[in-house]
Design brief:
Length: 76
Amino acid sequence: MLAVAEITAKGQAKIPQEVRAALHVVPGDLVAGEVGADGMATVRCVQALDIEYLRAVEGTLSEWSGSADEEAYREL
């Protein structure tokens, strides 16, 4: 399915109805966009809980970002 959306001067785009239907999204839902190394963009529906959880986990990850940890886990 190819769906085209025009980008506004504010950088916004309306997600076409057929894409919203395929993603099962309604007003108020969250979507995440990702661009791969090949330049292909994907959009998916995400739950608010996913984002809150990831933000909470992100704050704990710096504990293992030191050079000693890099050396110890390099071969994994």
